[in-house]
Amino acid sequence: MIKGKRSRSRKGNIWERHFKPLIPGVTSSIIATVFVAGGLAVTSWIVVASQALDGLAAWEKLVVFILVFVLFGPVLRIIARLCKTTKGKTAVAISYVLALVLIGWWLLSPPSVDSLFAEAYKQHIDELGKAKSRKGTSKIIYQAFHDRAMLIYFQDLKGWYVLFNQTGKWEYKRDDAMAKDTEWEDQWGNKNWLNNNNWMGDNSRPPERRKCPDGGVAKLWCDSPGFWRQIGWKRWDCAYAVDATYYQKFQRGLILGPLRSAEDKEIPQLLILSENHEYFFDPSQSINTSLRCDQSATTLIDKPSNVAPCLLWN
To answer: Are residues 215 and 70 in the same domain?
Structure first.
């Protein structure tokens, strides 16, 4: 009987001396891990969702990291109050430091080339340089073919890429009205107004199977008719659904796609825009999909409007 009591007493002493003191530390570590992992997940989601780091310089990313560090301070104090032992607080501090290291590495590490563009990038790595942003898309993506140029619009890129047929060159025209999601369609999507403007400066009308410009192009055309008359009448246009096509920025250019290389070609290709304003479709990567137009996005507004016509033609 005495031996049995001693045996149970020894087991009790071992538990009391070696294992029980670890419980607060283990609990604290679990609490710390949950809090820090949650903060890390939320931070990552915010950065990815807003694409806040696209195109930022290294020092700008460093500012973001410092802000994250400051925001994690209150979280650390809350966790520390829940931990009542030195071991627990040490576990919190270690978890906090590790989380900051991971966040710093993620924020400051250079973006990689997305798999969608990988094959095309290999063919043009010297022209494009290193990736400058992660892959992105837009709520509004639009492509149009005019008589002498192709137009591409990504809302997140805040402007129009005008690709001239004969020269193989492209120009960028910023469009703040569409980029800010303003009511641009009320002004530049009214059929009656569009059809009564002297777009080409010679009172000509669109020939058969041709259309007037509309939307953001009509607005910019009104502001700078000399430039936009170069593109001619519109033959075909298409607004793509969200996530139908993407872009990625590089040090010396941009890759867009998948996009149509012609209005009658449904099998898309990737488009490369270089910093010397040359463009070309890359056939090296086959894309086994077809792009469909979102017809609701291309429908013109046909309703009475009190919009004043462009003053250039009055």
So the answer is: no
Higher-confidence residue of 76 and 259: namely 259
Q: With both helix axes pointing from N to C terminus, report the angle between 86-108 and 58-82 in degrees, rounded to the nearest 10.
A: 160
The pLDDT assigned to 47 comes to: 54
pLDDT in tens, 100-143: 676 666 666 678 899 889 989 998 999 999 998 888 888 888 99
Q: Token pair for residue 298?
A: 């291309």
Q: Can you tell me which residue has the tokens 């991971």?
A: 102
Domain boundary among 88, 108, 128: 108
- Based on the fold, state whether residues 71 and 125 are members of the same structural domain: no
Strand order in the sheet with 159-164: 170-174, 159-164, 149-154, 141-146, 234-240
Same domain, 202 and 160: yes
* Least confident stretch, 106-120, 157-171, 209-223, 233-247: 106-120
Whether residues 184 and 223 fall in one domain: yes
200: which residues sit within 8 A by CB, 6+ positions away?
229
Q: What is the pLDDT of residues 39-50, one digit of tens each?
A: 666 555 555 544
> What local confidence, expressed as pLDDT, does residue 307 receive?
38
In this structure, the answer to whether residues 171 and 96 fall within a common structural domain is no
Residues spanned by the domain of 129: 115-313
Q: What six digits make up the tokens of 255?
A: 């890759």
**Cα angle, residue 42 at apex, residues 41 and 45 outer, rounded to 5°:** 85
Give the three-class secondary structure for 281.
strand
Alpha helix (H) residue ranges in 51-128? 58-82, 86-108, 118-123, 125-128
Q: Report how far apart, in Å, the C-alpha atoms of 165 and of each of 147, 222, 293, 303 are.
A: 9, 22, 23, 35
Place of tokens 């930022």: 56
**What amino acid occupies position 106?**
W
- β partners of residue 238: 143
Tell me which amino acid residue 222 is: C
Average pLDDT of every residue of the chain = 74
Same structural domain for residues 130 and 208? Answer: yes
Domains identified in the chain, total number: 2
